[in-house]
Amino acid sequence: MAQTLTARVWREQPQRYRMIANRDRETGRVYFPPRLAAPGNLEAEFEEVQLSGRGTVATFTVIRVAPTPYADLAPYALALVETEEGAKLMCQITDVDPEQVEIGMPVEFEFRRLFDDNEASVIYYGYKAVPV
Asked: Which of 44, 51, 54, 119 is a plausible cystine mate for 38, CB 3.0–4.6 Å?
């Protein structure tokens, strides 16, 4: 039961699988994942935004000693990416040598395997960024 529930909960998160964000109608700021309130404004009104799937690396680090679920991926680049719409999100940069990642590098998001939870027999999927 827990395995089924875990998989269903992940599938039902549209921001993870369809890159749905929201835009504050007053300020125009875009938030990903979507928020229920804006900083300093609990009454903010939002509209849904479909992210384009493209952005640029704002900053990054290279992970050389990774946490257990990601140990087989090390070394890898973990970056803060600013989307074309202005949302900022953290993700792995893949399909490139981590030493070649640069600030300002254009990237596109792809739906990929993130890690396996062997104990629960669940494979987690989400977005990763690849150089354009």
From this structure: 44
Q: 25 and 80 in contact (C-beta within 8 Å)?
A: no
Top-level CATH class of 2-131?
A: mainly beta
Domain boundaries, given as residue ranges, for the chain:
2-131
Per-residue pLDDT of the chain (132 residues; tens, 9 = 90+): 444 555 555 555 666 678 899 999 999 999 988 888 999 999 999 999 999 999 999 999 999 999 887 888 899 999 999 999 999 999 999 999 999 999 999 999 998 887 776 666 677 778 899 999
The amino acid occupying position 75 is: P
Q: How many helices (H) and strands (E) does the chain have?
A: 2, 8
CA dist 12 to 25, 85, 102, 122, Å?
25, 23, 33, 15
Please, what is the Cα angle at 111 between 120 and 83, to 5 degrees? 125
